[in-house]
Structure formats: C-alpha cells, structure tokens
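Dear Dr. H.,

I hope your travels went smoothly. While you were away I took the liberty of generating a structure for the chain from your last submission, since the lab meeting agenda had it listed for discussion. I wanted you to have the full record in hand beforehand rather than looking at slides cold. The sequence, exactly as received, is reproduced here:
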Amino acid sequence: MAGTVFFSVSMSLDGFIAPQSLDDLMGRQWVELQRWAFPLRFFRENLKLGEGGEEGRDNDLARETFERTGASVMGKRMFDAGERMWPEEAPFHTPVFVVTHQKRGPWERPGGTTFHFVNDGIEAALDQAREAAGDRDVRIAGGGATILQYLNAGLIDEFSIALAPVLFGSGVRLFEGVDAARVALEPIRAEPSPRVTHLTYAVRQR
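The corresponding predicted structure, in token form, is as follows:
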C-alpha cells in the first residue's frame, strides 16, 4: 500500500491557490503564481517543451514531487480545467482518480496517464489511488475544495506549499473552511529560493 498521502501547491502570500473563475486560470495572476516553475528543466521535460531549463533546488523539488507520486486524486473542477489546458500527453504519467458525480469510463491518454472517474466519495477514490500507487505516495492534486475535504477528513499526512511573492486579493483560498480544531501541523522543512519559499508540514490530529 502507498506510504504518504500529500498535496503540493503554489500559494500566494495572501493564501490563494487559484483564481475563482476557471476562465482566469491562464490569466496574469495565475501565471505570476506559477512563474517559479516555468523555467525549470523538469517542467520543460514533463510538458515536452524542449531541452534546456534551469537546474537547482526548485527543479529538484519539482522532480522529487513527481517521482514520489504513484497515483493522484483530483476534483471535477480541476479536471474540467485541465481537460481544456493539458496537452494530449497529460503531465501525470500515472493513474488519476477524479472525484465526481459524473459517470464516465476511464479516459486513457498517451504517456501513461489514465483518468478514472469515482462516483462514491473521497475515501473510495483514495482507496483506489492507494492500490494503484503500490509502494509510492498518493498526491491529492486539487483543487482547493478537494484538498480541504481530505484535510478535514484526517486523510492528509503531509503537504508542501511553494509560497510565491504574489497577492491575489480574491480567489480560491487554500485553508478557507479548514477544521482548525482537528488539524495540527508540524514543520518539516522551510527552504527559500530566489523565486519562492518551499514550506513542508506533517499533519497531525489535535
């Protein structure tokens, strides 16, 4: 069975991880939030953007996150946005389990990504992801509402935030609605880079 259930996101200094509207997902603020990742060698390799790209700690962490992940879970909102934006060879290269009410057969993409649509809740999706991941970890890919569901249900072991020097003002706030009475955090690592600060926490129940 998989070891760790985790999430890893970029977040603005005022706590947002995405714009409110899916139509703004490639807008100025979102691009600024993700700008630390665009020049990385791993990012370019994974999206087949050509050779080159930056090495360094940001690149190492992005690659480590990918390599530890044996399966991913996401919500329908994130899937709907990604279905429009991802290239034909989706960037996961593992099974992905989509929590949704929509009934749909598996959607297989080139490069090893297959989307499975799970209609019976977050725990069922996680159980399937754990089985598919084998001895690797399960990533809760997003979006914010799905991450929050898993966090409040006590199903997250660890998470990492790439804290970017960007202000959103509004949007999808990562911890909006968190059950703070049940969730305690233990710092694992804090690493600054020229573009972002990487923060990692273990999650404990209070």
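Two observations you may find useful: The chain is about 25% helix and 30% strand. The chain has a mean pLDDT of 93.

With kind regards,
E. W.
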